[in-house]
Amino acid sequence: MKLAVNYSVEAERLVRDSVIDIDYFKCPDFSNELIENAEKTNPCYIHFGLNAGDGQMDKVNWKNVKELREQSNTPYINVHAVAYAKDYPNTDIFSSSPSLVNRIVDAAVKDIEIVAEKVGIENVIMENIVCRGQGENTMQAIIDPAIISEIVDQTGCGLLLDTAHAQLTSKCLGYDVKEYISQFPVKQLKELHITGIQADEKGRLRDSMPMTKDDWELARWVMQRVKDGDWPEPWVVSLEYGGVGPKFEWRSDQDVLIEQVPMLCDLVK
């Protein structure tokens, strides 16, 4: 397994100064220049901002996606399984009616098939997202393990498991996170994302934060499933802490990286 961390100015400096040791920077897909600069210090792979389920896949710049993938030797094209409440007006976000479930599954499958036509289904992985419940923008069905499994079964794509998304969803909806994750199509695991979740000043939980005791306990449990052979080895385990731009750069504390990257490395390696 390879180890990656979100690209940030702080992470780049620490790698360059040999303070932390990683295999890859995980880079966003919105800046070719950022990727070119990052690769001067360390190999990169690209995390694409593609969604499966919102009907926008035909608007993607596939030429740029393919160029970025080839430039960085990124093995998989990732998509996020989405079902936005705005696309299902006058429908309870907790609805599990067969007709709604079929619409959500069909929308995700259709979008994934578009990606598969471009790069081959063996190169496509699907990531679980967050559902916070009432008053939010995500239909609960899209985070249901049975529905995630149905999409994976119908398309043949792999699974990108985001433990923080699962943890956040579980805390918001009252699930047991280990039982929840165990129902995912983990036999198709290809990539793993790990990071912390913490409450903001208003008490709203968010991810891409420093790891807490609960987050480390979940990470150890997940990695033990892999090491015991219950789940296949993902090609990479990425610490999704820090980043670039206004949304992430304020939480790119080098002290957190200095402490937590080696801790995750111990788990992975």
Q: What does the model show?
A:
There is one protein chain. This protein has a single domain, classed as Divalent-metal-dependent TIM barrel enzymes (TIM Barrel). The protein is 39% helix and 18% strand. The protein contains nine helices and eleven strands. It has helices spanning 9-16, 32-38, 62-72, 98-119, 145-155, 163-173, 177-182, 213-227, 254-268; strands spanning 2-6, 24-28, 44-47, 51-52, 77-81, 124-127, 158-162, 189-194, 196-199, 205-209, 236-239. A nine-stranded parallel sheet has the order 3-2-1-11-8-7-6-5-4. The chain is globular and about 55 Å long. The mean pLDDT is 95. InterPro entries: MbnB/TglH/ChrH, Xyl_isomerase-like_sf.
Question: What keywords describe this structure?
Answer:
39% helix; 18% strand; alpha/beta; 269 residues; single chain; TIM Barrel; globular; nine-stranded parallel β-sheet; two-stranded antiparallel ribbon
Please trace the helix and strand order, writing H or E for each element: EHEHEEHEHEHEHHEEEHEH
Spatial arrangement of strands, main beta sheet: 3-2-1-11-8-7-6-5-4
Low-confidence stretches: none
CATH-level-4 superfamily name: Divalent-metal-dependent TIM barrel enzymes
Helix run count = 9
Query: What does the main sheet amount to?
Result: 9 strands, parallel
Number of strands: 11
Distance between the termini: 7 Å
Outline:
globular
Instruction: Examine the coordinates and then state which fold CATH places here, giving the name of the CATH topology.
Output: TIM Barrel
Helix content: 25-40%
Our count of domains comes out at: 1
Determine the structural class based on helices, strands and strand pairing.
alpha/beta
Query: Which CATH class applies here?
Result: Alpha Beta
Rg over CA atoms: 18 Å
Q: Could you tell me the mean pLDDT?
A: 95
Beta content: 15-25%
